Amino acid sequence: MLQIVYIALLAGTVAGAFSTNQSVTEVRKVGHGPTGYEVTFRYYSETANQPKSVLLGGFPLYANALTASRSKTEQIAPWDWQADDFSLFLSPLRPAYGNTTYLGFNMTFEESSGGWVTTLPFPSGTFGYAFYLDCKEGWSSPHCNPVIDPGNPPIQSPAGDQNHSIIQVPFDAKHQVQNYDYALPLDDKTRRGSIAFYNYSSPGSTAPTKDIHSVGIYLPVGYGEISGKKYPVLYLSHGGGGNDADWFNQGRAHNIVDQLIDAQVLEPTIVVTPNFYDLGFSMEDFATNITGENGSDTYGLNGFFEAVRKNYLKHLIPWVESNFHTISEPTGRAWGGLSLGGGLSITMLLNATNIFSHVCIMSNTPSPLPNDPQWNNTGINSVDIFLGAGFYDKAFDNSRSMQDRLSAAGVLNYRSRYFPGGGHDWHTWQDILYTWLRNELVKSKWG
Ligand SMILES: *[C@@H]1O[C@H](CO)[C@@H](O)[C@H](O)[C@H]1NC(C)=O
Ligand SMILES: *[C@@H]1O[C@H](CO)[C@@H](O)[C@H](O)[C@H]1NC(C)=O
Ligand SMILES: *[C@@H]1O[C@H](CO)[C@@H](O)[C@H](O)[C@H]1NC(C)=O
Ligand SMILES: *[C@@H]1O[C@H](CO)[C@@H](O)[C@H](O)[C@H]1NC(C)=O
Ligand SMILES: *[C@@H]1O[C@H](CO)[C@@H](O)[C@H](O)[C@H]1NC(C)=O
Ligand SMILES: *[C@@H]1O[C@H](CO)[C@@H](O)[C@H](O)[C@H]1NC(C)=O
Ligand SMILES: *[C@@H]1O[C@H](CO)[C@@H](O)[C@H](O)[C@H]1NC(C)=O
Ligand SMILES: *[C@@H]1O[C@H](CO)[C@@H](O)[C@H](O)[C@H]1NC(C)=O
Ligand SMILES: *[C@@H]1O[C@H](CO)[C@@H](O)[C@H](O)[C@H]1NC(C)=O
User: Would the keyword Signal turn up in this protein's UniProt record (predicted)?
Assistant: First the structure.
């Protein structure tokens, strides 16, 4: 039985439609530098007590190719942004480099509206943000709690799953170089697909309740209207600490897929975003201390990934295929995942070659060592493999060594995307997803 939890509102470039005082966080084309666009953020206290201060935070400052590294970013402020600069999300967000201590942006109390307001230039892209009330230590401090924008709520299931509201800023060719317009929502709302979250039966699951698990589903526009039509299914996994809403809220995967379908580049495709937490087991259960060479699999990750694979193949995929109009064979199944979900994708590649025809591995954890007999699995040759990471991504080496191991094993049917301005962050994963879907899922048999 299908249970719809929440139908998401697909926000446009103007972030929301709610405000007590008819004012919302707003993305505006201004036609002047530094970026050609500005965003005005507004926060209205929901209680009678006004905070003493409100910080805007949640997004990183900018870096440039001359000074950035995996552990260092100059933290270039929005008004100093230049055309080649990129948004680089490093952890920790306040590294001991550069001369700016980035705490967030102070918002100003506006007597006329009773709201807190600030305006900043933004380049093209997808940015998470939140309000931090009476936060002295800076927004990335564990002592400061994010308050989402009530006028622009995140896509989430259930409420509280996502800590950041999202803005999407269009590209302005006069001022910018890096164009993320491929992730914007389609202007015509009637041509967009829909997102909902569902509960499905997953014995052993501990959340949202016993033996029930949550999953996000995107259905393409027109789904179900043509009798007998079956759709291919793209599974997209979150990473460490994430959940089934991440690819929609932070990754805007539905917009990317909407645009490619609308342009008739991609076959209308169902997108499924599972959640690998609370399935009834955890990573700790598999901590084996197998210290492979150079510490690979120190945490027994593959044991965990194997358990997730078995669980999804037994419970999730059969549920999807019996409740939606799917092409229930490998040519109609693709799998992608990021970070820890990228490690899970390696398991889906090596141990599910008869299930998926396409696998995309993003910013992965270490792959099996070169001498592992798993590389001799001839089934790998039947899978269309895509992999990648950002240049400033902590997983860059894992991704490149995976390529070396595939090559050494004689597996040459892989392609990749290494994103020049990318960290271990959503701009990187959006870029890999878009490149994969646009170039690979159309060329080969899909759907
Ligand atoms: C999914 O399960 C949770 C936990 O029982 C519940 O709160 C939620 O309402 C369920 N969703 C639906 C649509 O039944
Ligand atoms: C940053 O601070 C260091 C040491 O105070 C100084 O030498 C350097 O010039 C400063 N860099 C910039 C970009 O201001
Ligand atoms: C914000 O404003 C307060 C009050 O004026 C000030 O104490 C604080 O240092 C400012 N914080 C930032 C990050 O600018
Ligand atoms: C709008 O702002 C005014 C001025 O601060 C305030 O008195 C009023 O309560 C606000 N309206 C709503 C609906 O919150
Ligand atoms: C959201 O914020 C809360 C409170 O700061 C924190 O405990 C939680 O880990 C955060 N969740 C995510 C997904 O970042
Ligand atoms: C793994 O090794 C660490 C450090 O030696 C130790 O603390 C931990 O208990 C070990 N875990 C297991 C499952 O053996
Ligand atoms: C382990 O690290 C050493 C030294 O960096 C390197 O030479 C070797 O190739 C690495 N081994 C693997 C399997 O990555
Ligand atoms: C594939 O399955 C085998 C057997 O269950 C397991 O030992 C191996 O770790 C799995 N491979 C990966 C990459 O998870
Ligand atoms: C793969 O098979 C070949 C031929 O049987 C063998 O020489 C090689 O050692 C195997 N490689 C691995 C990683 O097991």
Answer: yes
Provide, for the chain, the percentages of residues in helix, strand and coil under a 3-state DSSP scheme, each rounded to the nearest 5: 25, 25, 55
For residue 145, give the ligand 5 atom closest to its CA.
5
CB-ligand 6 contact for 287 (6 Å cutoff):
yes
- Just give the CATH number of 189-439: 3.40.50.1820
Q: In whole angstroms, what is the distance from residue 138 CA to residue 134 CA? A: 10
CATH 2.60.40.10 domain extents, the chain:
10-179
Chain segment 185-238, per-residue pLDDT in tens: 999 999 999 999 999 999 999 999 999 999 999 999 999 999 999 999 999 999
Q: Does the C-beta of 295 come closer than 6 Å to ligand 6?
A: no
Q: If one looks up domain 10-179 in CATH, what number appears?
A: 2.60.40.10
pTM of the predicted structure, to 2 decimals: 0.88
CA of 111 to the centre of ligand 4 (A): 10
Query: Which residue's CA lies nearest to atom 3 of ligand 7?
Result: 294
Residue 351 alpha carbon to ligand 8 centre in Å = 7
Q: What is the pLDDT of residues 74-102, one digit of tens each?
A: 889 999 999 999 999 886 555 433 445 68
Structure tokens at 423: 């960290």
- Quick one: tokens of 270? 């169902």
Give the model confidence (pLDDT) of 140-186 as tens digits: 888 899 999 988 999 998 989 999 999 999 999 999 999 999 999 99
